[in-house]
Amino acid sequence: MSVHATAHWKGLYPMTSTMIKKLVLAFVGLGAAGGVAIYLLTIPLLHRLPKPGRVSMDGITTIEDAVEACRRTHLQGWEQVAYAQHLVARKFTYSRLNSWDTPSRAFERGMGYCEQQALALKHIYDRLGIESRGVLAFRCAFPAGVIDGIPWPGGFSAHAWLRVRIGDKELDVCPGSVNNTPGVTHFEILSKVRTWHSWLRPFTHLESALENIGRDMMARYSMNKAEETVQLAQAQSLKGAISLMGQYTASRVLCRRSVFLCISAS
Prior knowledge:
It is a single chain. By secondary structure, this protein is α+β, with helices and mostly antiparallel strands. The chain folds into two domains: 47 residues; 175 residues, C8orf32 fold, CATH 3.10.620. The strands form three sheets. Strands 3, 6, 7, 8 and 9 form a five-stranded antiparallel β-sheet that branches. Strands 1-2 form a two-stranded parallel ribbon. It is globular. The model has no long low-confidence stretch (mean pLDDT 84).
């Protein structure tokens, strides 16, 4: 390489390095701004969280309480897996309101969405020495239900849950319903199941927070429209009833006048 070419590349290196640093800072800044924007959008949801912020079930409030409860059963293998799964399912109520809670905090609160439920159960399995891994699918079908007091007609959504391995057997384990058991879930998988690596979780968390915001807004909009429809129907019914009452009153007046005229003529 000639002396001029070497000097040229040496001159470009600081420029390239500076450009990369600026790009990295720009992406970091955009990510931080996006995170702040998402958090601000969740504030109305946070204001709707019920009080108190800790719920006890059969003396179980924290993850540690749940681990001790599982150990006291002296169950082993899949029986222990099923017991912990059912415990977490009973403790949790599905909610879109507390997207920023850690799995442990969501467990204490007794409410949360699929990622919080699955990771809370994984914390319990890890302490019990049960092998599990998080998995996710970007398209699953769910039945109708009630979420945060608002009816949900069911539909399609991404979902996260666990796969538990004991020996050579691995089964899907989801604490999203009290009717679930190892190998039996309340949803239908419609896309490829992927391993939910820990490095993916910040991204899936932000995506879930956005989805929770959007679905909650749509659910409240639908509920408000339904209430308006009912109120309009009630108003129309009342108007019809008033109209009928008016016609009835007018008929009675005419009838009385006719009777009076007949009596007067006689």
